[in-house]
């Protein structure tokens, strides 16, 4: 195994997986294994309200059932975000010492959402708010009034470009396109953007493969990793599975893995996923390992993949 190449599965155990999650997991595995690399399973169970241990166990079981293995990870608590708070705390204090962190008292909804990865339809844009310009006296008045702030990181002026291996160069002007962002919620829970960056950096992840709805998070993560003294991984985003909810294929649709497992064996499901991803001309049953020689990012479309019947 080439230990200089490390991929990861990074599911959030906030529900059972469905086809979209499975496709991301399969491609992340194929990407790393095709290069002879290792694979980690990191459970992104940061938010104690939205995530549950039963879902984490079900996700790990689904991955193993499908034939996707990992070399280190869940259930080791060192690979569960809920067990890594001290590391996020360290990173937070490093950023604070650099003068990049400030308290923010803006809307509660925004602060609650910060622990989860931003997916389509969710607010992901927060131009610099007035909190960035509060005077020391204003801040201490709010703090002594008992109002708990969230904590934001101050992004730099200028652009950040990530070279996405599938979609090409992707540039954002952080201060214009996403603004200062929350790294810690008012209830103390660390935000997705901070946790994922710290984890990818400290776990030595070199390849991040995930849905393209997270492409717009990659520049923030690459910038944070550099600010913390690390080297960002290669990012490789994949198209999303889409379809009108009403019209989604009954067989695949938005059904959970638990439901899919009632009617399909793992080879059939792998064949369906490989076909949807453009890796097979027809949905022929096979194992992920048998799919390895056929794996090629050039076969995978850039546009989203519809699973309407
Ligand atoms: N845990 C995130 C999710 O399930 C994915 C994070 C990532 O791959 O960076 O949406």
List keywords for this structure.
single chain; 309 residues; alpha/beta; Rossmann fold; Glutamyl-tRNA Synthetase, domain 3; 2 domains; three-stranded parallel beta sheet; three-stranded antiparallel beta sheet; 11 helices; 12 strands; binds glutamic acid
Description:
With 309 residues, the chain is α/β, with parallel strands linked by helices. The protein has 2 domains: 6-83 and 199-224 and 235-306, HUPs (Rossmann fold, 3-Layer(aba) Sandwich), CATH 3.40.50.620; 86-198, Glutamyl-tRNA Synthetase, domain 3 (Alpha-Beta Complex). 34% of the residues lie in helices and 16% in strands. The chain is built from 11 helices and 12 strands. The protein has a 3-stranded parallel sheet, with helices on one face. It has a 3-stranded antiparallel sheet with strand order 4-5-8. Helix 7 packs across helix 8 (218-227). It is elongated, with a radius of gyration of 20 Å. The N and C termini lie far apart (40 Å). The mean pLDDT is 91. The structure holds glutamic acid.
Provide a compact summary of the structure.
By secondary structure, the chain is an alpha/beta fold. The chain contains eleven helices and twelve strands. The strands form five sheets. It has a three-stranded parallel β-sheet with strand order 1-2-3, covered by helices on one side.
């Amino acid at each position: 195994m080439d230990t200089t190449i490390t991929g990861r599965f990074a599911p959030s155990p906030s529900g059972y997986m469905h086809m979209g999650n499975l496709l991301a997991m399969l491609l992340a595995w194929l990407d790393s294994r095709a290069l002879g690399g290792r694979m980690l399973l990191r459970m992104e169970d940061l938010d104690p309200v939205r995530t549950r241990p039963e879902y984490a166990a079900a996700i790990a079981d689904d991955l193993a059932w499908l034939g996707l293995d990992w070399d280190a990870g869940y259930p080791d608590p060192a690979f569960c975000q809920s067990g890594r708070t001290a590391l996020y705390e360290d990173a937070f204090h490093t950023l604070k010492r650099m003068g990049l962190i400030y308290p923010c008292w803006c809307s509660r909804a925004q602060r609650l959402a910060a622990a989860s990865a931003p997916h389509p339809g969710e607010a992901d844009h927060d131009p610099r708010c007035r909190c960035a310009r509060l005077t020391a006296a204003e801040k201490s008045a709010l703090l002594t009034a008992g109002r708990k702030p969230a904590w934001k990181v101050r992004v730099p002026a200028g652009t950040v470009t990530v070279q996405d291996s599938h979609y090409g160069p992707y540039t954002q002007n952080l201060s214009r396109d996403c603004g200062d962002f929350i790294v810690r919620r008012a209830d103390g829970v660390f935000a997705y953007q901070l946790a994922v960056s710290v984890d990818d950096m400290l776990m030595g992840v070199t390849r991040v493969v995930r849905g393209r709805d997270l492409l717009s998070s990659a520049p923030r993560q690459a910038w944070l990793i550099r600010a913390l003294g690390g080297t960002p991984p290669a990012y490789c985003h994949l198209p999303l599975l889409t379809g009108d909810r009403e019209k989604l294929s009954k067989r695949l649709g938005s059904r959970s893995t638990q439901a899919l497992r009632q009617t399909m064996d793992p080879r059939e499901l792998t064949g369906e996923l490989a076909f949807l991803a453009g890796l097979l001309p027809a949905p022929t049953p096979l194992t992920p390992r048998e799919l390895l020689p056929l794996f090629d990012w050039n076969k995978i479309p850039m546009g989203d993949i519809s699973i309407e019947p």
